[in-house]
Write a structure and sequence with these properties.
Length: 281
Amino acid sequence: MSIGIRLAIGIAAMVGILGAVTSCGTIESGNVGVRTTLGKVNPEEIEPGIFVGLPGISRVQEFSGKEIGLDLNDLTPKARDNLSLRDLDVTIYYRAAAGSIADLYIKYAGQHTRDEGSRVTLPAYAMLLRLARNSVYEQASRIDSLVMHTQRDELAAAVRKSLQAELDANDKGIFTVTRVVVRSLTTDPAIEKAIQESVAAQKQLETTKQRIAIAEAEAQVEVKRAEGVAKANLIINQSLTREYLQHESNLALHKFAEKGGTTTVVVPANMQTAPLINIGK
């Protein structure tokens, strides 16, 4: 057997041996891998692509570096007025910094969850789930049950802000709460009735305010009309001087005296001139 053939057989044998004692895998884009060798965690994350491991010696666990959704279902928080909601469903989305996954792997050991669908590990999922639930209950307690159904966006914004502050207090810049969605909000039947009564009362109040506004407008019209009449009377009274009235009286008496057929003597009570006497023939 020639040296070349023996070399080729040796290389093939070595490849076979390496293949038997190593394992390969891939890290999906957007994720990172954390390698553990003989129980020790490598602080450097494995970038997306192909990796090689040694069975029984080292293993690589793939962690999600993408946006992760936390589904909180069938929550029954108490509102500010101490009334409980019947059902509240919220989804909170977060992302962990890919360059800090190895540190999170150590710090939150036992808090990570493996997604059975993708078989990718979700970093600190259990911890985030607990904090998110507490945040929803806390922020819901700041809003009255009668108006909470109209403030879903405000509730979502408050939950996002409070949860982000809680995460930053422990791991500044590591976790990012990307968005919060209130998927369903159902109040207790007693609250529903109270809401309906409140809406009816509000409608009645609006109707009453409209009627009052109309009545006030009509009253203003009457006031303006009365003011106009009073002003006209004032102008007339100011124009009726004593001399003018005497002049008008004299004209009337003169016309009366010119009528024939009767003998009439008219003596006004405040007469300041001689009476007009017409003696009929």
